[in-house]
Amino acid sequence: MSDVVEKTLTALPSLLSLDSQPGSAKLSTNSKLGNLIRGITELTSKHEEEKLIQRELLSIKEQVSSPNTTMRQMKELMVRTIYCEMLGYQASFSYIHAIKLAQQGNVLEKRVGYLAVSLFLDESHELLLLLVNTVLKDLQSTNLIEVCMALTVVSQMFPKDMIPAILPLVEEKLSHSKEIIRRKAVLALYKFYLIAPNQVQHIHNKFRKALCDKDPGVMSASLHIYLQLIQENPEGYKDLTVSFVTILKQVVAGKLPMDFNYHCVPAPWLQIHLLRILSLLGKNDQSTSEIMYEILDESLRRAEMNHNITYAILYECVKCIYTIHPKSDLLEKAAKCIGNFVLSSRINLKYLGLKALTYVVQQDPKLVLQHQMTIIECLDHPDLIIKRETLELLFRITNAQNVTVIVEKMLDFLRVSKDDHTTIDLVGKVAELAEKYATDNEWFIETMNTVFSVGGDMMQPDIPNSFLKLLLDGFDSVEEDRKLRLFAVNSYISLLQGEPSRLPQRFLQVISWVLGEYSHLNGDLEPDVVLRLLAKLLDMKSSSSETKSWVLMAMTKLCSGGAALSVAREVSETYGSSMDTMLRQRAQELQHLSQDSQLQTRVLPQSSSQEAVEVDSSLSFLDWFVSEALAAGAAPYKPPHQRQEEMSRSKALSLEPYGLSLPISMSSCSVADRQSPTLLSMSSGLSGDSTELSHKGSSTTLKLDGVKRVWGREGYLAQREPEEEAAQVETPAPLQSPSQQGDKDSSHSQAPTPTQTPESEQEKQQLASSLFVGLASQSSASLMGKSEQTSQRFRRKARSPDKSLSSSEQLTNPLGSPSSGADNLLLDCSISSELVSAPEQTHLQSLDLTAANSACDAPDGDTKGRKTLSRDDSVSAADVTPHEDPDRPKDLRLASYLPAELSGLSGLPHSEITLVCSNQSLDLSACHVQKDDSLEFVVFIKNSSDTSVHQVQVQVSCEELEVSCVCDSPAEELKSHSVTVCQYRLTVKRPSVYFELAGVVHYQLPAGSLQTEQFSHKLPLKSFIRPLAVSTEDYGTMWLAFSHDTKQNLPLLSDEQEPLTATLNVLKKKLQLHVVEIIGKEGIVACCLRPDQPCLLHCREHAGMLAVWLRSPVPDLPDCLLYHCQRALRER
Amino acid sequence: MIKFVLMVNQQGQTRLSRYYEPVELSRRAALEAAAVRCCLSRNKDQCSFVEYKDFRLVYRQYALSVFLLIFMFNIKSNFVEVLDKYFSRVIMFNLDSVHVILDEMIQNGHIVETNKSRVLAPLTAINKMVDG
After folding, report:
1. Cβ proximity of A919 and A883 under 8 Å
2. Dihedral sign, CA of A801, A803, A804, A806?
3. What is the pLDDT of residue A418?
């Protein structure tokens, strides 16, 4: 490396010479900044530094606000302020002065002003608006330097809303005669594209012009835009492949001016850039790939191994070759190149080689075999970074045969690693491998023990959760389950008999759960022994209260029999008065259950794992409460991220026009929908399979997902047949014993360091044979191969999806409970009240409660559900049940009374006719009919008495609806058992989730007394929704015009083939929405209540959810509609 | 993409920092200190890449001058060997000039210009104007 440094230092004079220039000499060592820096360097403590800087800032503050300060002094002050802020001390008082300096200073002062602005403010800072005018002025300046500065600052930061103000000026600069101006203009447009892609859509052809610019600088600046564009849509730019290849050819051939060379390499960064673009274009595209084979070959050949920068080019080249459609001789050369990297004695190159190998093993795992000895050496490398990288590589080639060795290596590393981040990542990987490829029970449990002890409390919570779930769910063989659990129990008992205070809390929690659940499997183990061990944990100072509550819960499951009871009593007495409510609760449970064994077996059956307990995870039993609250005018629930978003949005005005590629910033999509933040949604994540984990894990290194290839494996192999054979000779057959493998290997392996002693050599070769075993046999073992389930020992039992959600353990143990949300709280509350009042009922009752509640969960407020929904209603009280049976035939009969225009003949379906009110003399029923422009509400009045009634009058009203009477046939006389009909037309005044129609009927009995009866009827907003047929263009204009909006994530029907389309179709069918257009992962949908009450939905598939953005001119409509969308999707 | 550029002296004091992704001022000091600690603790035989949290640090220690360069890439970024030949010991007292140069080279976390004469052109022009 020293030669590089040397070369670098010799190249320094260019800047050193600056120092001798008079312009900068003034600022040199005697300046105030110099004094400040020297002062700070001499200080010894942070405290002194703080004092010094505060003093400095105070004096700067005084001076900047003084009217006598010249611009020149201001500049100097600004540099000092920059320095102070750089050290982390806020100097917000100076921001406005920085803008002033940029406005008023001369060139250098202006530059410092702009610089200060770009350092101080972030892109959303409101002061940035004040800069717009200055930029505008400077862009029009005749002084090129000023134009340059303005363009530079624009390409660093600019308020997105003000882009239209300067866009024409910047565009104009694209054809400026000076290359530097053109280049900076391109970079400014690049920035615009990044922050507001829609605004520069119209100048895409100008980008092409920039790409063809005669100046290489301008051309390479335009590549930034193209890299971005091609990343987003590689299909759209395939036609440019030839151009990029031509450019690269010219660059490689050295056609650029000499000053673009860097250490004699022509424009290296430009080459890297082009190679990246090419790999994007050639990915999964044979014909495009073919165009670039030649130049890739040329690049590989030209870039000799002589300088860091050529390594970077080679690395990029290799990645490109392995990304595009493969060509055998190129692959060969690339493999050789990787070999050179890995074998290099220079540490940076080794690192690079390992990175490249890690990338490549996915396509070609056999490449690793050629370098096995080097990899083994890297495993023992003194540099932890290299070690870590090697493990990452091994992680990717793990299979059932080499898992033991690789996991061992990882655990070795974990024991010495001090970096939390690495530990968390690696622990996750070990857990994943252990679960996936476990060879036997002992190994699995012991590995997990190490994972828990080393991973401690930092590891991802889903590791212990998934481990427990694995134990709980069991596998295909009951006997295996028993053995595994038994082994776990025995292993934990011996751990607890050792020094449990050393174990991390998470591990202790796992241990207590397993002992509580399965210690009965060991017949020799007396419960009181286990209890005593557990009680020891309670007494430990280091135990957290969370752990203690796990322990208490485990004790509750175990306490039976004489000796155990006394321990339990002791413990429950101690903790029954604990200040921690959770602990007290658990202690109370322990006390009650230990005294009543009958109750205990009911509450905590030993085979609980076998029965799934149904839990209403969506809290749907609370729907009536929600809908009532909504109907009463409460605002719909918005998740925190949405509230935050709205708050931040309301501050800034968005002037961005609507486009289909609208970027919705819903980064916090993981926050699930409105349904409920239950612990069940957590526990469903807990069952998450290990592939998820691996994605998480690998994301900390290279972004490797999505580079899987799709070409046919056979064709690919055919091309490389000769190599294949060679590789097979080299690799040991997977079924041979280790010693045989060792022999075989030693005869073939290419040992790079022949000087080693024979023993260590042999050791390494043995290691190699155990590490790389099985690789050759699964010749196709890409990452895809890893996900194959065949070799997996622990195959989770197939459970029906709802069962896997329901989690009996949630109730029988506090798995995750202390951290869980409302759901558990609910249960706990009921348990505690039950325990205190009537212990024999315990929380089974709470389950009944849930069941009961879900039973009365009304399906979507449609008329059937109304009966339960409105049961609290005073008038239409739920005593409709007795009428239920006679209702059916009545229904049909009543339907015949429908007005002709609404009857079945008109083709308009009517909703179910329901009884809304009845007494001795009258039966009132109602239904509604959806017409294109309105909703018709029909009331049937039937005289059920034997005498006729007179003066029947019906009035219907609703606050949120406009009710107009179509035909009110108040019969003078309603004969016995005859029916009359009133019809009303309803339109929405103010949207609401449900509309409560209040009605009054007046009538006169023959006796002459005037009677009044009230009734009510509930209509969902759903009935008022009509499709709104608009074109995409109209949609765009409407979108901009609407002011009320809501964003939300809805569940996506991800089990369908095209989740977005399927989801939208459900909405379309259930809610009568109109799907305007679906493009890729986005879809736009429109509907209306009345033609003047439209609502637009922008739906986007994002992270497995449907991100919906609703807009409407009508307040509340988006929220109400959202509620129905959610229900529609949930009930599908 | 480059997340930030940092230059520190051998005591680990920040001499220059430039962020290309918003990081709160209050968080910067801790982040810089941790990053610098990672790099300074390494010796010459170890590679110039360090993984710190989600960052990959690429650093270089100049034996003669007292500066240490740290570039940060995010995970997705491919490896780019960045050699910075433009900086020298003058930066300590020419904070603004260094920033001007850096702005020419790196924008929005991407390397936009590496042609030495072109990078220096605006600065020399400014200096000339001021003097002339």
Report:
1. no
2. positive
3. 76
Q: Which residues from B are below 8 Å from A108, CB to CB? A: 126-127, 129-130
Q: Which residues in A lie closer than 8 A to residue B87 (C-beta atoms)? A: 15
Q: What are phi and psi of A1051, to 5 degrees?
A: -65, 145
* Amino acid occupying residue A449: N
Tracing tokens 């010749």 back to the chain, one arrives at: A779
> Residue A9 and residue B108: Cβ atoms within 8 Å?
no
Q: Mutate which of B81, B86, B92 to disrupt the A interface (most A C-beta within 10 Å)?
A: B81
- How many whole angstroms separate alpha carbon A438 and alpha carbon A445? 9
- The shortest CB-CB distance from A145 to any of B42, B114, B122 is to B122
Task: Kindly report the number of other CB atoms within 10 A of residue A796's CB atom.
Answer: 18
**Chain A / chain B CB contacts < 8 angstroms:** 207
CA–centroid distance for A243 within its chain:
38
Asked if A115 and B96 come within 8 Å (Cβ–Cβ), the reply is yes
Helix or strand (DSSP H, E) at A652: none
Question: Across-strand partners of A1100?
Answer: A1082, A1107
CA geometry: angle A373, A377, A382, nearest 5 deg? 170
Q: Which residue has the higher pLDDT, A895 or A565?
A: A565
The ipTM assigned to this model is 0.87
With CB atoms and an 8 Å threshold, state whether B47 touches A123.
no
Give, rounded to a whole angstrom, the gap between the first and last alpha carbons of chain A.
Answer: 64
Confidence of residue A29 (pLDDT cuts 50, 70, 90): very low
Give the count of beta carbons closer than 10 Å to the beta carbon of residue A863: 20
A696-729 core/surface letters (b: 16 or more CB in 10 A; e: else): bbbebbbebeebebeeeeeebeeebeebeeebee
- Sort out which chain B residues have CB atoms less than 8 A from A28's CB and list them: 93-94
Residue A444 has which token pair? 């699995």
* pLDDT mean across residues, chain A: 73
Instruction: Band the pLDDT of B56: cuts 50, 70, 90.
Output: confident
pLDDT confidence tier of residue A11, bands split at 50, 70 and 90: very low
What is residue A47's predicted lDDT score, i.e. its pLDDT? 87
Q: Which of B18, B88, B126 sits opposite A16 (nearest CB)?
A: B88
At A966-1003, the pLDDT tens digits run 776 656 777 777 888 888 888 888 888 888 888 888 88
Give me the helices (H) in A196-267, please.
204-211, 216-232, 241-252
Which residues are paired to A922 by β-bridges?
A943
Domains, chain B, ranges and CATH? 4-131 (3.30.450.60)
φ and ψ at residue B60, rounded to 5 degrees: -145, 135
Query: DSSP states of A322-391 as a string?
Result: HHBS--HHHHHHHHHHHHHHHH-SSHHHHHHHHHHHHHHTTT-THHHHHTHHHHHHHHT-S-HHHHHHHH
Query: The whole model's pTM is what?
Result: 0.58
Average pLDDT of the residues in A538-566? 81
Cα(A688)–Cα(A265) distance, integer angstroms: 49
A50-54, A654-658, A720-724, A747-751: which is most confident = A50-54
Inform me whether the pLDDT recorded for A497 exceeds 90: no
Task: Give dist(CA A910, CA A895) in Å, integer.
Answer: 9
Query: What's the pLDDT tens digit per position in A164-214?
Result: 889 999 999 998 899 999 999 999 999 999 888 888 888 888 888 888 888
Per the structure block, which two tokens stand in for B4?
């930030």
Which residue, among B61, B124, B117, B31, has the nearest Cα to A20 in the 3D structure?
Answer: B124
What is the rounded average pLDDT for all residues in chain B?
70
Which percentage of chain A shows pLDDT scores above 90? 9
- Would you call A229 helix, strand, or coil by DSSP? helix
Q: Is the pLDDT of residue B77 over 80?
A: no
